[in-house]
Design a protein that fits this description.
The complex is a heterodimer of chains A (465) and B (86). With 465 residues, chain A is of the alpha/beta class. In chain A, 31% of the residues lie in helices and 29% in strands. Chain A is built from 15 helices and 26 strands. Chain A starts with a helix and ends with a strand. In chain A, 49% of the residues are buried. Classes of the chains: A alpha/beta (465), B mainly alpha (86). Chains A and B meet through helix 10 and helix 15 of A and helix 2 of B.
Chain lengths: 465, 86
């Protein structure tokens, strides 16, 4: 089963409503119908093949949210290539690991992003995107001659995540995960054909991919792609384009609340879909009251999404909802309160981590996947408590504390570093090498880290000793 | 550049908004403060600041043009330019 073929089938049955409305501020709103979008995906597949990208080739994608991102992502899966949707905030430490681990045959990147990937361009097929078009940057003769990766046909993409090892792990995501994820979410949200969902979050995240790409394409819903996260702009888009649903992280909804008064009248929407981090219970009532929406909060991981989600019409605030139909869930070694590691089993979860047998064996046992998160089940509803693994979710982004520590000790003056998470912030303590004439200050360490690690991972506070 | 009274008002408005979002005492916020490294303003906080400044000063700010803004002073100048071009 190839997910792109299923999407072609779905698109062939659409009525006149658009598949996408792209709110690119440079070009103005672009409406793309279902037949036009099918054509775009097929055209993209032809271009990719023309430039030597074949079935089994691994392709690192560095693209901003756009219809092009989606058509290229689907085209790659259609021809059997394995896209890696890479987080655009990643810098040296993450990219070195990903390129060493996956050794992609090709790179497709925004032209102005190539500078961040320049160390990894030689020998690879490189396509650059500029002004909505793809251009050949490098034919990558060496890569074109390389053998395809030995990945099964059931694998759709490689999506990098963290478990606290200090480096990213490439989850092998099957085609059926995207299909199951969309199906589970559809049953919870109960969308109708022709309705509209607003895409705000980066499409590299599996939550966005499922909620704003696969769910709408498979169920006849129009995705409106916003280039802004400013709530005032988003509310304007809601007014102008008749948005029914928004998909975002809890922190963005908190921003909606903070700016509610400033926004004035906001048209009534149907539901907010929320995930990616913790939604404080007190925000449920306020959001539903202030915006007149249902708030559908859920939980998932790159290895499978959604594990659980609230159901429209039967929402229970403070929980991450009921377990998805296709998922078995148990709590491992529960304590007196019933809390323990959340374990899941479903036939369509990630097949493991690419070229990481030890890490795969650590996470996947006897058909079960240990989420690395602590929670409990209360009256059929899953309640998230905290992370057991060495990662923390910050505004929808995952921060691996060990990786931050590694980035700090890459600074020549730092001989030791400790990193902790406190009060929703990453805090570091570093010890300076006494043999080094240390004239720098904390600001210089932070500034240097901007080239080494994603900006959202840089500690807010660094104590120097 | 706007006149002195306008500049003073914009300066005051922006510092008050930054203070409200960051919960840092407005008297501690200096024009030379680095937005990310010193004030700890992340991307969502910057959006909250932008939206509040837009509403307060009745202007529109293009987020994509913010990448070269490093200090509070840079941001104040950026807003002044938008105000002047209104």
């Amino acid at each position: 089963m190839n997910i792109t073929e299923r999407i072609f089938e779905s698109l062939s049955g659409w009525s006149d409503h658009p598949a996408f409305i792209d709110l690119d501020p440079e070009r103005g709103p672009t409406y793309v119908s279902a037949p036009q979008f099918s054509g775009r995906v097929r055209d993209a597949a032809d271009i990719l093949k023309k430039h030597g990208i074949r079935s089994g080739f691994i392709v690192a994608l560095f693209l901003n949210n756009s219809i092009d991102f989606i058509s290229i992502f689907l085209a790659l899966m259609f021809i059997g290539a394995k896209p890696i949707p890479v987080n655009m905030a990643f810098r040296k430490i993450e990219l070195d690991e990903i390129f060493a681990n996956a050794d992609p045959h090709a790179i497709i990147a925004e032209r102005d992003h190539l500078i961040h990937v320049r160390a990894h361009l030689p020998g690879r097929i490189v396509l650059e995107r500029e002004g909505g078009k793809l251009y050949l940057h490098d034919v990558g003769a060496d890569a074109a001659r390389r053998e395809p990766a030995e990945l099964g046909g059931d694998i759709a993409s490689i999506n990098y995540t963290y478990r606290g090892h200090g480096y990213p792990l490439g989850a092998l995501v099957p085609h059926r995960q995207y299909l199951d994820g969309a199906d589970v979410l559809e049953k919870a949200v109960m969308l109708e054909r022709g309705e509209r969902i607003l895409a705000i979050l980066p499409m590299q995240h599996i939550f966005t991919l499922i909620g704003c790409v696969f769910l709408p394409l498979l169920y006849g819903v129009t995705t409106v792609i916003s280039y802004s996260r400013n709530p005032l702009r988003l509310f304007e888009a809601v007014t102008e384009h008749g948005i029914d649903y928004v998909l975002a992280v809890p922190e963005l909804y908190e921003l909606f609340l903070n700016l509610r008064e400033a926004a004035g009248a906001v048209p009534r929407m149907k539901a907010f879909l929320s995930g990616g981090s913790v939604l404080p219970e007190e925000h449920y009532g306020r959001l539903m009251e202030e915006f007149g929406v249902e708030l559908i909060h859920g939980y998932g991981l790159t290895e499978f999404t959604p594990v659980s989600r609230n159901i429209r019409g039967a929402i229970r605030p403070g929980t991450i909802g009921v377990i998805s139909d296709c998922v078995e869930c148990r709590i491992d070694s529960p304590d007196a309160n019933g809390s323990g590691e959340i374990m899941i089993r479903t036939k369509n979860m990630a097949r493991g981590y690419y070229r990481r047998p030890a890490e795969t064996a650590d996470a996947f046992h006897d058909g079960w996947f240990g989420t690395g998160d602590i929670g409990r089940i209360d009256n059929g509803h899953l309640i998230f408590e905290r992370e057991k693994k060495g990662t923390r979710k910050m505004k929808g982004n995952m921060v691996d504390l060990e990786e931050v520590k590694k980035a700090l000790v890459m600074y020549s003056s730092v001989c030791e570093a400790e990193v902790e998470y406190f009060n929703k912030n990453v805090i570091a303590t570093v010890i300076i090498n006494p043999s080094v004439n240390f004239n720098d200050d904390v600001l210089n360490i932070k500034r240097r880290m901007e080239n080494i690690i994603a900006g959202y991972k840089i500690p807010k506070t660094i104590n120097v000793y | 550049m706007g006149n002195n009274i306008q500049s003073y008002d914009i300066n005051k408005e922006i510092v008050e908004i930054v203070s409200k979002v960051t919960r840092i005492d407005k008297h501690s916020i200096l024009k030379e403060n680095l937005i990310r490294e010193e004030l700890g303003i992340d991307s969502l906080m910057s959006i909250e600041i932008i939206a509040n400044v837009e509403k307060q000063l009745n202007i529109a700010i293009d987020e994509s043009k913010m990448s070269n803004i490093n200090t509070v002073g840079d941001f104040i100048k950026f807003v002044e330019l938008i105000m002047d071009s209104k």
